[in-house]
Amino acid sequence: MPNLPNCPKCNSEYTYEDGNLFVCPECAHEWSLGAEAENSEETKVYKDSNGNVLNDGDSVTVIKDLKVKGSSLVVKKGTKVKGIRLIDEDHDIDCKIDGIGAMKLKTEFVKKL
Question: Where are its TM segments located (predicted)?
Fold first, then answer.
């Protein structure tokens, strides 16, 4: 078995190859070797459910009903959200929705207007 690099995130030695990516089974981090991969990781690209690139300040539409955690409120399908802010967390979009307030959404549940 060839020498595989340790995970750059958690330094685990149990990495494996999956196609042209390296995968860490401990923290689920995926990466590839090369200068292009390092540059692309620095600037994460956020895409909506249709594959369109999202930017800060874009307007999006919710594509399915979403329950608001800790509340009986629901964000209805078709709700328009203006002026999104992209963040590097589990939920990629930080926004304010009229009638509900501040929320975080995942990019997979929105489409760009």
Answer: none
Q: Has this prediction a pTM greater than 0.85?
A: no
C-alpha 24/C-alpha 40 separation (Å) is 18
Q: What three-state secondary structure class fits 1? A: coil
Position 106, amino acid: K
SS3 content of the chain, % helix, strand, coil (to 5): 10, 30, 60
Going by pLDDT thresholds of 50, 70 and 90, the confidence category of residue 44 is confident
- What does the pLDDT read at residue 80? 95
- Give the separation between CA 15 and CA 11, rounded to whole angstroms: 9
Q: Give the closest residue to 48 by CA, choosing from 112, 92, 95, 113.
A: 112
